[in-house]
């Protein structure tokens, strides 16, 4: 609680008072010789389970989910009917390309070759927050994507009630 008894969230710092991590901002980091990329310090999960899940995104980048979101995803996947052959096949296809990883002591993660290839990442990666998860783009693809115009951003804010 803040000094006046209210709960506060400092999105600019990436951390709420209750240690919930929010993924905001944009960062460019070089891959090292082992293909590792550094996660911004304010995005790192401390204590307990710090296992992230990386999934290929149809937009040509990698979506990275923190442990809290992985738990939610696990509930949705568990709800898939085991007798639904199509759903099971799609889940198998998706998760065969996924990777789970934690940060090392320097805050680096190591994406597998399938994810790096899917996103076209080599050299530099751009890490972009989307509040509850983050994306990892190749620098080239991120620079070439269609930039959303401000009107669309404001429309989205209105739809979210912001």
Structure description:
The chain has a single domain (20-140), classed as Transcriptional regulator MraZ domain (Chemotaxis protein chec), CATH 3.40.1550.20. The protein is of the alpha+beta class. The radius of gyration is 17 Å and the shape is globular. The protein starts with 8 loop residues before the first strand and ends with a helix. 29% of the residues lie in helices and 25% in strands. The strands form 3 sheets. Strands 3-9-10-6-5-7 form a 6-stranded antiparallel sheet. It has 5 helices and 10 strands.
Major sheet summary line: 6 strands, antiparallel
What is the CATH topology assignment? Chemotaxis protein chec
Please name the fourth-level CATH homologous superfamily: Transcriptional regulator MraZ domain
Number of strands: 10
| Helical residue percent band | 25-40%
Under the CATH scheme, which architecture would be assigned? Answer: 3-Layer(aba) Sandwich
Rg calc:
17 Å
Oligomer: single chain
Unreliable stretches, pLDDT < 50, 5 or more residues? 1-18
N- to C-terminal distance: 23 Å
**Would you tell me the structural class of the helices and strands?**
alpha+beta
Q: Determine and state the CATH class.
A: Alpha Beta
* Overall pLDDT: 82
Main-sheet strand order equals 3-9-10-6-5-7
């Amino acid at each position: 609680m803040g000094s006046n008894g209210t709960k506060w969230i400092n999105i600019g710092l990436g951390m709420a008072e209750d240690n919930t991590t929010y993924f905001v901002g944009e960062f460019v980091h070089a891959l090292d010789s082992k293909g590792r990329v550094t996660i911004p310090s304010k995005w790192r999960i401390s204590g307990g389970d710090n296992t992230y899940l990386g999934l290929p995104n149809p937009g040509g980048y990698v979506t990275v989910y923190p442990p809290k979101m992985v738990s939610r995803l696990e509930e949705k996947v568990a709800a898939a009917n085991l007798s639904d052959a199509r759903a099971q096949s799609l889940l198998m296809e998706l998760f065969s390309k996924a990777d789970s990883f934690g940060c090392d002591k320097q805050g680096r993660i190591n994406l597998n070759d399938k994810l790096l290839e899917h996103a076209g990442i080599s050299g530099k990666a751009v890490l972009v927050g989307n509040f509850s998860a983050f994306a990892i783009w190749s620098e080239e693809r991120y620079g070439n994507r269609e930039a959303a115009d401000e009107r669309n951003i404001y429309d989205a804010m209105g739809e979210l009630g912001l």
